[in-house]
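Design a sequence for this backbone.
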C-alpha cells in the first residue's frame, strides 16, 4: 500500500456532549438504553438543558474518533466530514487541528447547526446516545476530496453516514475513488439500527467495494439476519476480504481468506465509559493494517486501544496509544 497518509476517514463530524447520569435519568427523559436514537435539534436542546453543567464537550463522531486514535499511535491521517460555520463547528475543527488530523472540508453556511451526540453514561458504563445529525447530513459528493483519499493507504467509511441519499452517494463515490487508486477500503457498520435500515445497501457495498469490515456481534448478526454467530462469520468471509468482529469482554474474531482468529480482550480494572470502544479497536487495527503488521498484532493493537478508552470518560484516548503499544512490544 502506498500513500503518505495511513488512513483517511469519511464520516459524521459530531461534537459529543457526555454526562454521567443515574439509570432513572434514561426513564425520565425517554432515552433508549445502550443504543443510538436520532433526534431533531429541538430535542437536542432539551437534553442539553437536562444535562445541565454535567455535560462535557468533546469532538466526536465514530469515524473521527477512530482517526484520532490512529493519530495517537503515531499514524498520519486525514478526515472528510461536514460541520457548520458555528461555535461547535469551530470547536470541532480546532480540535482536529490540535491533534494534527488534516480536515479540509469546507464548513456549511446557512444550513443546519453542527451535529451533536448527547451521550448519557449510566453507572454500569453503558452509553445511551441521542444524536442530532445536523450539518453532517449535508455532506454531498462535491465534498469528497479525491486528492486526500488518494493520499491514504486506507479509506475508512463510517456506517452512520449512510442515512441520507446525498451522503450515501458521497460515501459510494469516495469508495470508488479509493478503489480506482488501488487503495484499501474499510467499513464500520456502526450500529445495529444502521444495519436494519440499510442492510441490502451495506451488503452490496461490502461485496463490491470493501476490503475490511468492522462490526460488533449484534451488527454482524443483523447484517446476515441470523442468530448463529459462526454462520454469520462464514457469510462475511464469503463477502469480504477480511473482517474484525468485536464481542465485548470475549475479545474479537478476525476473519481472513486463510483463517479465523480469536483474540482475547485486554484486562481492564473498571469499565468507566464504554463510549468509543469499537471506534478505538478499529483505530488500533487500522494502524497495524496500514503498517503491514501481522493480523494478530493488528487485533492486539485494537484491544489495547479499546481497553484504554473504556477506562475513562470520552471516546478518544487520554493516554498515548503509541506509548502503550511500545510497552506491549508491538512498536
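Sequence:
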Amino acid at each position: 500500500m502506498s500513500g503518505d497518509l495511513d488512513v483517511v476517514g469519511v464520516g459524521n463530524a459530531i461534537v459529543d456532549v457526555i454526562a454521567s447520569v443515574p439509570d432513572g435519568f434514561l426513564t425520565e427523559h425517554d432515552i433508549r438504553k445502550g443504543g443510538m436514537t436520532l433526534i431533531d435539534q429541538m430535542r437536542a436542546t432539551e437534553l442539553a438543558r437536562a444535562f445541565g453543567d454535567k455535560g462535557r464537550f468533546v469532538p466526536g463522531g465514530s469515524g473521527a474518533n477512530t482517526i484520532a486514535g490512529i493519530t495517537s499511535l503515531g499514524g498520519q491521517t486525514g478526515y472528510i466530514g461536514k460541520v457548520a460555520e458555528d461555535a461547535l463547528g469551530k470547536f470541532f475543527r480546532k480540535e482536529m487541528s490540535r491533534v494534527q488530523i488534516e480536515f479540509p472540508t469546507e464548513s456549511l453556511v446557512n444550513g443546519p447547526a453542527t451535529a451533536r451526540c448527547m451521550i448519557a453514561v449510566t453507572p454500569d458504563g453503558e452509553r445511551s446516545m441521542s444524536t442530532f445529525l445536523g450539518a453532517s447530513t449535508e455532506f454531498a459528493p462535491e465534498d469528497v476530496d479525491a486528492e486526500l483519499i488518494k493520499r491514504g493507504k486506507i479509506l475508512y467509511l463510517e456506517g452512520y453516514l449512510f442515512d441520507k441519499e446525498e451522503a450515501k452517494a458521497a460515501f459510494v463515490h469516495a469508495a470508488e475513488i479509493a478503489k480506482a487508486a488501488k487503495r484499501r477500503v474499510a467499513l464500520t457498520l456502526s450500529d445495529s439500527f444502521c444495519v436494519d435500515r440499510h442492510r441490502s445497501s451495506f451488503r452490496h457495498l461490502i461485496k463490491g467495494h470493501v476490503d475490511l469490515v468492522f462490526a460488533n456481534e449484534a451488527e454482524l448478526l443483523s447484517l446476515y439476519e441470523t442468530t448463529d454467530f459462526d454462520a454469520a462469520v462464514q457469510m462475511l468471509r464469503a463477502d469480504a476480504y477480511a473482517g474484525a468482529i468485536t464481542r465485548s469482554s470475549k475479545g474479537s474474531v478476525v476473519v481472513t481468506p486463510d483463517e479465523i482468529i480469536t483474540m482475547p480482550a485486554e484486562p481492564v480494572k473498571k469499565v468507566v465509559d464504554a463510549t468509543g470502544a469499537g471506534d478505538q479497536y478499529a483505530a488500533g487495527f487500522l494502524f497495524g493494517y496500514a503498517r503491514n503488521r501481522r493480523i494478530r498484532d493488528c487485533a492486539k493493537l485494537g484491544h489495547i486501544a479499546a481497553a484504554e478508552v473504556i477506562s475513562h470518560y470520552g471516546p478518544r484516548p487520554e493516554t498515548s496509544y503509541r506509548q502503550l503499544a511500545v510497552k506491549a512490544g508491538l512498536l
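The chain has one domain: 5-13+61-111+134-327.
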